[in-house]
Amino acid sequence: MIFDLDPHFARALAGIAECDCNLYLLFGASVSFDDILATTARAAELEPSLASPHAVRGIALLATGQADEAERSFQRAISAQPDYAMAHYYYGHACVELGRKHDAVQLLRRAADLVPNDVGFLCPLLALYVSLEMTAEAEATAREAVARCERELAEHPDLAVAAWTGAGALALLGERERAVEWTKRSLAIDPEDHLTLYNAACTYSQIGLLDEAIDLLERAMLGVSAHRVAWMREDGDLESLRAHPRYLVLLSRLHGVEPSRAL
């Protein structure tokens, strides 16, 4: 354990907490928020100018119903290191859960700008633009996403996140055949990954393959965290499914996984 090797290594402690945070945030895994809070508190004590402990602590505080303190933690992270993209990204996700989509858009846009080669930041940003009916911004970001994803796939053909991010962007731009092709590619690369399944479902929903979308959601969503369910309920990419009987059945199966605050 890192604690035995060097209990004063703040960046390693923050990294451990961040791994747990991402398991919860992105994959809906069950994690110990008490452990995350303790580890990030220790990391922040050891290296106060380090942004990541404050950003990760914000996610844990929000998940445990401490929204005001969570916001202060996110703000401390950004103040400590304004160019740390993950602080903006985590805060953006938190704002979605708090029902503040316009704030989330600004934060996720900033995260994407800070890491110009990254493709993953653009996927939730696109979903928010769609949800907010910001059509011009959505189309411009979709074109940006396709360009980024094409570059990444040329260098890393087995990068599933580039395939499914690009697929969603292509669907938004009306390029249905390419969207299906890229979605199938992402599923071939990583057929059991939660994010791959979920985002493939989003693309299929966008292009009208509703039963195929729900097939994937049924595989992706059972057993995930309240945060992932909250995101699904607000995801503009899934709008075509809202009245579908199978989607309503899925929601009823997820009924016990309620977020701690209303969206």
Give a verbal description of the structure.
- The protein is mainly α and 263 residues long.
- It has two domains: 1-116, Tetratricopeptide repeat domain (Serine Threonine Protein Phosphatase 5, Tetratricopeptide repeat, Alpha Horseshoe), CATH 1.25.40.10; 146-263, Tetratricopeptide repeat domain (Serine Threonine Protein Phosphatase 5, Tetratricopeptide repeat, Alpha Horseshoe).
- 73% of the residues lie in helices and 0% in strands.
- The chain is built from 15 helices and no strands.
- It has helices at residues 2-5, 10-27, 33-46, 51-63, 67-80, 85-97, 101-114, 122-131, 135-155, 160-172, 176-189, 194-206, 210-221, 226-234, 245-253.
- Helix 3 packs antiparallel against helix 4, helix 4 packs parallel to helix 6 (85-97) and helix 9 runs antiparallel to helix 10 (160-172).
Summarize the structure.
By secondary structure, the chain is mostly helical.
Give the CATH level 1 class of the largest domain. Answer: Mainly Alpha
Overall, the morphology is globular
Give the CA-CA distance, first to last residue.
39 Å
How much is the average pLDDT? 88
Q: Note the quaternary state here.
A: single chain
| Radius of gyration using CA atoms only | 18 Å
Percent of residues in helices comes to over 70%
The number of helices is 15
The CATH topology of the largest domain corresponds to: Serine Threonine Protein Phosphatase 5, Tetratricopeptide repeat
> How would you name the CATH homologous superfamily of the largest domain?
Tetratricopeptide repeat domain
Give the beta-strand count.
Answer: 0
Topology order in helix (H) and strand (E) letters: HHHHHHHHHHHHHHH
Contiguous low-pLDDT stretches (5 residues minimum) are 257-263
Largest sheet: none
Percent in strands: under 5%
CATH 2nd-level architecture of the largest domain = Alpha Horseshoe
Count of domains: 2
Q: Structural class, judged by helices and strands?
A: mainly alpha
